[in-house]
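[Meeting: bench + compute handoff]

Bench side (C.D.) handed over the final construct sequence. Compute side (W.E.) agreed to return the predicted structure before the next meeting so the bench team could plan truncations. Sequence as handed over:
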Amino acid sequence: MEGLEFGELFLGGVVSNYLARGRISGFGFCFTDRRIIGFKMRRVALALKAPFVAAIGVLYVVVILETLSGAALLALFLPLVLHLANWPITALTGRTSERILSRKASDPSKLMKRRRDFELRRNQIEELLMKSPGNGHNILRTGGLGGYLKITLKDYHSKPIEVKIHGWKQHQRLRDLVINFSSSEPKVRALEYP
């Protein structure tokens, strides 16, 4: 496979809209027996959300204009319509972008050609720490139920790399990859918190 060193074994990859490094969602990992490689997928995630965000923006403008025009009954009704329209649009956006990002992970050779956010060799990593996301749905999206993968480096002057995990399936896939990576020789310490 292109992008791998001679004798390097590809363990797997995961790309998801439910993974985030920083504020904007869309991140991916490739694990080999020697390295962990991280990829930002923000442009893809944002490009897929743009039409839906525009539709919500238009609805907000209609609500504001109707409120200013003095149509009292319509002005009271439109914010409710706006909120009711926001939920399915948000759900559709998440599902659509997740499907497209998952397809990108199915071709590891294309993924390995992408610009890398980070590339860490096994001997640079001190510890891999995972926290699982909470069960259930977070209606208010306050972030309290999210998990993470924190990669602590042996160079203590460097900040740890933290990737947020908001989906249970993505957590399970990433957990399997972390276990496979950490159990290869030389071993890397991997911890998990529920």
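W.E. noted at the follow-up: The mean pLDDT is 79. C.D. will use this when planning the next construct.
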